[in-house]
Hints:
With about 170 residues, this protein is an alpha+beta fold. The chain has a single domain (about 10-145), classed as Trna Endonuclease, Chain: A, domain 1, CATH 3.40.1350. Helices cover about 20% and strands about 30% of the residues. The protein is globular, with a radius of gyration of 15 Å.
Amino acid sequence: xxxxxxxxxxxxxxxxxxxxxxxxxxxxxxxxxxxxxxxxxxxxxxxxxxxxxxxxxxxxxxxxxxxxxxxxxxxxxxxxxxxxxxxxxxxxxxxxxxxxxxxxxxxxxxxxxxxxxxxxxxxxxxxxxxxxxxxxxxxxxxxxxxxxxxxxxxxxxxxxxxxxxxx
Length: 167
């Protein structure tokens, strides 16, 4: 059986990050999904109909420390399969120590991202600690501050509406 590293504190931070960005999804409410679901949240409208899915990750570094965000290729593949099957958008939300970023996972984004072999080196007993990961340029994220909820954009047009059409 796979080792589970997620703690109660991790779940608290995940929920806080989602609460910090929910204003980016007007009219939708986040519903936390079960532990081994492909994604962390379903965003539902006032009729409790799922509008889109969200995967939330928190990092212990500032956004500028690395040019890319790496995430398990298996995690993204599983999430994309679910959202394509249900024809719902998938949004990745990353909480860095200095900001939060959102990016819609689209076919064109996936095609533009290299797959790298990366991961944790502090878990030598875990065969999944080092694995193929998708490397998403941090410049692809719509960025906003954590504390004030104020939106600010990188030096390119990153604020594309989160519509259903790109998947």
